[in-house]
Amino acid sequence: MLRKLSISNYAIIENLELEFSDKLTVITGETGAGKSIAIESLSLVLGERADASVLYDKQKKCIVEAYFDKIGDDVKQYLKLNDLDLEEQLILRRELSSAGKSRAFINDTPVTLFVMKSLGNLLVDTHNQLQSQELTTMHFQLALLDSLAKHEEEVAQFRIRFKSYIENGNRRDALREQHMREVKELDYLNFQYSELAGVSLVDREDEILEQEQKLLEHTEEIKKNLSNAIELMSDSEFSIKHQLKQVIGLLNGAKKYYERAEELILRLESARIELGDIEDEIQSRQQELTPEPDRLDQIHARLNIIYKLQKKHHAGTIAELLEILRNLEASIQSISFHHVDLEDLEEKIRLEQKELIAIAKKISSNRTKQIPVITQSVNRMLKAVGMPHAEIKIEHESSEEMNAYGMDYLRFLFSSNKGSAFQEIRKIASGGELSRLMLCLKSLIASSSSLPTLIFDEIDTGISGETAMKVSTIIKELSTKHQVICITHLPHIAAKGDMHYFVYKETIKGKTHTNIRCLDKQEKIRAIAQMISGEKITAAALQNAAELLN
Hints:
Elements: E1 2-10, E2 13-19, E3 24-29, H1 35-45, E4 62-68, H2 73-81, E5 90-96, E6 102-106, E7 109-111, H3 113-123, E8 124-127, H4 138-149, H5 152-198, H6 205-217, H7 219-235, H8 240-255, H9 261-288, H10 293-312, H11 318-384, E9 391-403, E10 406-415, E11 423-424, H12 425-428, H13 431-446, E12 453-457, H14 465-479, E13 484-487, H15 491-494, E14 499-508, E15 511-518, H16 521-533, H17 539-549
Parallel strand pairs: 3-13, 3-14, 8-12, 12-13
Antiparallel strand pairs: 1-2, 1-4, 4-5, 5-6, 6-7, 9-10, 10-11, 14-15
C-alpha cells in the first residue's frame, strides 16, 4: 500500500509531500495545475525512464521517494530473491541529476532500473486512457481469465516449465546440427583413424629403423674396415700383436737387472690377452655381417609409410602421430556420445511436451469456464456505467501448438450499439469506452485477486450525470478492498474520496509552482461545488456538493 509520496524538483513541483488513504484518495484541481504531474512523478520510482528535461531547477537533482507498507507475500518473495532487505516499510527512491544520470534505490540499496520496474509492477497498477490499450493485448486478456480462475500459480509454473522446454528444444536443435556436421566428418575421421591405426606405429620406431638402414646400406664398407683391423692386429709383419710380443721380449731381457720391469710385463701380457679377445670379437662381428637386400627393401618401405604419414599430418615424430591417432579416436567416440545425448534429450523433450500439453489443457478448461462469467458480468456493468447497448464477446480457440501462456488464443470483441456487428476492441472502442470497459474488468477481478494499489488518472473523461454517479460507485466499491488513488474532474467521484487533495498553481518571484493541500470537510464542499458550477460558486452548487458528500 502506498503510504507517502515525496517529490523534489520535478516538472513544476519544487517540493511536495502527499500521504494517502488506505481506501480512496481523490486528487482534483484547476486544469493545468499539475494533478497528473504529481502521479507521473511516481512513475520514476516504478522504474520508468526519464531525462533531465523533467527537472524544475536544472542546477539541482530530482528526488522522488515512495513509502509502502502492508507489503504482500509476492513483494516479500521478490525482495528475498533479489537479496534486498525486508523491513516493515518499503522505500523506493529515484534520483535524477542535471546531467541526466539516474540512480535507483530500494531500502537504500542501489538497484538496476529493471529490478525497480519489476518491483513497481507488483506494487502499483496505474491506469489511464493510454494504458487502456493494454486491454487489447492477449497477455492481459489471458491474465484476466487466469485471475478469475484463481490458477495463477499453476500458470506461473507452466511458464517456468515451458521456458525449460524451449531451452531444451534449443539445445536439442544445436546438438542435432552439431551431430549432423560431425556425421559428415565421421567417414573422413574413420578413414584417417584406420590409416594410422593400420600401420601399428611404435614410438621411436623410425629412429631404430634408420639406424638399421644405415648398417645394411654400409655392410660391405664395415666388413672391409673390420678385415683391415684384424690384419693390423695380427696378420702383418708390423701387426700390433707382433710388436707387443717384441716389447714383452725386451722387458724380459731387462728384468734380470730391473725388477720393476716384471710389473710392466704383467700389464702388457694382460693387454695382449685383451687384444686377442677383441680380435676374436671383430672376427665374429665380421662373420655376422651379411648383405640383406630384402630386409633393406622392407625398411625402405616402412620408413616411406612413416614419412608420408608425418608429412600428411604435419607431424615431426611418431609420438606426434600417435597423439593424432588418440585425438581421432576421441573425436569418433564423442560423435557417438553426442548421438546418445541427443536421443536422451529428445526423449526428455517428448515427456516435457506431453506433461505440458496436459497442464495446458487443464488451464484451458479452467479459462473456458470463466468466459461466460466475464461476458455476463461485464455486459451488466457496462449498462451501469452509461453504455446500455454495449456488449463484449470473447472468442476462444485452442491449439496443439503451445506458447508461454498455454494453448489458448482469445479475441475480445466489442459492440457499442444495439445491432452493431462485433469487432475487435482495438478497432472500434473509443478512448472513453476503453476506460470504462477496463474499469468494469478491474472491478470484476478485484474480488478474486490481490491487486496492488490502483491509480486511475482521469478515467472519467467523457462522462457525466447518472453515468458519472455509477462510475463513482464502482470506484468506491473497489476502494473497500484495495487502495485506490483517483485523479478526477467529476464531482461525483470527488465526493466519494476518503481523502481529498486539491492541486493548485501559484507564482512566486516570477516562477510558477505547483502546490497541493489536503481538504477538510468544508473545503471539500467548496471544491466540489466549484467543480459543479465553475469559478462562481452558487448556493445551489454548495447544496448539491453537500448532498453528494452525504
